[in-house]
């Protein structure tokens, strides 16, 4: 198996540096998703994004170089600060095979589930492990897919 065939998964969190009210945040998230979905489809990267007003939590998966390049762009993006890598490892399967970049936890019905996560962790991702963040993203993604 060559380097481009080996799947890698990266899990990180960062602090939100987007200023403005709910409408401004929604517009920024919509833009992030549109660009990510286009770029990730071309690069064979899949993943999911969880966002609240304070933090981003994300999992990216695909070929190593594509995942690294995506993460480097995120680290340079001024909408993020304190970008913290929680895990970067090989994997045999994708957790998000159908999502070039899914956005999870946005539905009002997710508020209860997300609220529980926030209570136990404060959705302070610095207190979450990579596995816990990945499980959260994956569980919400499966609910989105129905």
From TrEMBL:
Signal peptide: none annotated. Residues 7-102 form the BLUF domain. Pfam families: BLUF. GO terms for molecular function: blue light photoreceptor activity; FAD binding. This is BLUF domain-containing protein. It comes from Tianweitania populi.
């Amino acid at each position: 198996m060559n380097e481009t065939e080996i799947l890698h998964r990266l899990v990180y969190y960062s602090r939100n540096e987007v200023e403005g009210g709910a409408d401004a945040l929604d517009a920024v998230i919509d833009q992030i998703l549109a660009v990510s979905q286009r770029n990730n489809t071309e690069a064979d990267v899949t993943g999911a994004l969880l966002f609240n007003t304070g933090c981003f939590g994300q999992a990216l998966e695909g070929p190593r170089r594509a995942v690294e390049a995506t993460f480097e762009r995120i680290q340079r993006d001024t909408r993020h600060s304190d970008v913290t890598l929680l895990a970067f490892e090989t994997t045999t399967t994708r957790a998000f095979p159908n999502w070039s970049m899914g956005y999870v936890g946005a539905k009002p019905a997710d508020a209860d589930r997300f609220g529980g996560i926030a209570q136990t962790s404060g959705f302070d991702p610095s207190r979450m492990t990579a596995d816990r963040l990945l499980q959260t993203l994956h569980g919400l993604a499966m609910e989105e897919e129905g």
